[in-house]
Amino acid sequence: APFYWGPHPGAPPKANSLPGGCSPTAAAAQVADGLAHGLFQLAVAQGHEYAERALRFVRHAEPRLPECMTPPAPPKLAALREGLPAHRLEIVELVERLAPRFDIDPALALAVIAVESNFDARARSPRNAQGLMQLIPATAQRFKVRDAYDPAENVKGGLAYLRWLLSYYRGQVELAIAAYNAGEGAVDRHGGVPPYAETRAYVRKVLELYEAQTHPYDASLAQPSPVLRQQTARM
What rounded mean pLDDT belongs to the chain? Predict the structure, then answer.
């Protein structure tokens, strides 16, 4: 009798295939490639040259990390999320999808968005900061954001800026957040969080939602801020 490498010719269609014709095996492969993408990204950020080579084989997959490496949202941020209407929960899901591409903890990005715009994609400040992550035109241009009111573009630009600031301040969240609000020039001039009431209130609010003091960073993106040398000299 012949061997069949598939269902029996008289068998009914598979009941265990997924929507869109995707089999469970294919779906599992997508998840595996996504995990590989996320882990290789972390390795590249730490300077592993072989990870850079391997990364090109899984760039097609959405990067993700294993649950054991994804910390839960801080309690205050989780409570804030639970109170959001459905259309703003879509923003949360967007951030959770995009943040790993920029090696940013989604909880940090969400804390910034909560304080910057309260998840309002059409928000605009008196100083013309625009969109979810309140990008001023100069920052939008710096990170190649064409439409600051497009949620995905805005979040990508804000994440890129956060990633650069975390590199510049070598993972010190307080300094990076202060610079996100007041600019890195102001933080450098004052040797730390500037004495502006608005900036200090902003930093306090973000850190109430995101309590970690440090964050992983990619040292290759920026030379360290002179503030860090001043900190070392004071020790």
Answer: 83
